Amino acid sequence: MSFWCERVWLPGDALAGAPGGAMAGAPGGAMAGAPGDVLAGAPGGAVAGAPGGAEAGAPGGVVESVRVEVAEGRIVGVEPGVPASGGDVRLGGVVLPGFANAHSHAFHRALRGRTHADGGSFWTWRQGMYALAAALTPERYERLARAVFAEMALGGTTAVGEFHYVHHRADGTPYPAAEGGPNAMAEALRSAARHAGVHLTLLDTCYLHGGLGTTRVDAAGVGPERHKPLAPEQARFGDGTVEAWARRVDALRAAWADDDRVLVGAAAHSVRAVAPPELAAVARWAREAGAPLHVHLSEQPGENEAALAAFGVTPTRLLHDAGALGPGTTAVHAVHLTDADVALLGASGTGVCLCPTTERDLADGIAPGLRLLRAGSPLSVGTDQHVGADVLAEARGVEEHERLATGRRGAFDPATLVELATSAGHAALGRPLAGRIAVGAPADLVAVRLDTVRTAGIDPAQVVLVAGAADVSDVVAGGEIVVRGGEHRAGDVARMLAEAIEETWSAAESLAVGATVAPRTDS
After folding, report:
1. Domain range list for the chain
2. Rounded distance, CA 498 to CA 482, Å?
3. Which of 49, 59, 209, 244 is most buried, taking the most CB atoms under 10 A from its CB?
4. pTM for this structure?
5. How would you classify residue 120: left for phi > 0, otherwise alpha for psi between -120 and 50, otherwise beta?
């Protein structure tokens, strides 16, 4: 299959040297037999003479009239400066690599537009989340997640990192084999992603405790109140022990080993929910499995205060001391950091996933994005609780937050923001070859219109600072056309969402969980 693209965002280290040339394949080499002059793919290579006016050394840019050849789900050829042919699938506007939504809680989508009546805080917001979680069954979750992932696909997401902690039945007991087994909820998410046409990295979450206590532990790490037990509304999140969590995730990895559209990664929910020895065990599991590790970090000041009270150090330091930081780890949010925290994250190469729309919605605060990047932490973005399923808005939000925090514009240029939304996010999800329109990469393409009321008249190279999910016209994931002309192959996604959300809330209301859950301010 071949796609002819009116314009394409190509990485600067792999652009052809002249119109009609072919682009280099994997980084460090050129595509064999390519017509015309070929530029080697090493980072920092010149892009002089590239169609569309890309400058030498540029990290990426827009090139016109590009044919992208696809076979078996991967890109096998990229040819700039050529006319369309009769057999091409035409993609208008500007085509970007598929977006990576690096942090998602699919069921939180049902909270959108339902939590604003009484103000409140992050901690009171969680009560509605608990009520919603209690209503989920594997069948109900599959229907909801299918609609949520399809909404993401409509906005250009081709891979999602699902931070998954709703593991068991509401009373905390595993699902029996007759109901899908201990990983029934994970299987529901895999099915949902497959039907929605997106790649899935399931970040299976270790969640063992209900919050930090207030008693400082001693030098040996011993303290009777350092972590509280799971509350009843959290029971279905936990496996009891980190060893039981690892056994369940090992079984899941084995079951999914032959499915090339899914990956199993690890997550430690937070230092509130996973004690230091357990953090060390989760990190060790991820290293040995070669799997990505994600963890919520310092989203709220309350987490920092609780960690200081219980351990005398910040959450970042707890992760460092547990051996949980490093290039394979992504810290999510990282809003309330000390200078020492930033240095620890950067020096270890730990990635940071920012979720600006959620961090605004929950009044979390503004993360020190530029400081983290300069310190050495790669940045990615996620939609988290899905205030909007719009990765472009999240990437743009990183720059907008930096402007508000510093009073300066342009901390993150368009090329860097595209990287946050694409290759950096895919790398955080264990897909290092994705997020580039280059030979050997997964064939994930997103066409963004340049003729809407939002994008008309813009410089295509600055599309990431203007466009949003509503401007996406076509999406290709793994070589499959998932969205065409703004329509998802699954049909009416808005109707799917409305029906699934109504079903879930009806079930939650019938359980009357909200009436039995007292607000907590400690976990």
Report:
1. 2-91
2. 21
3. 209
4. 0.90
5. left
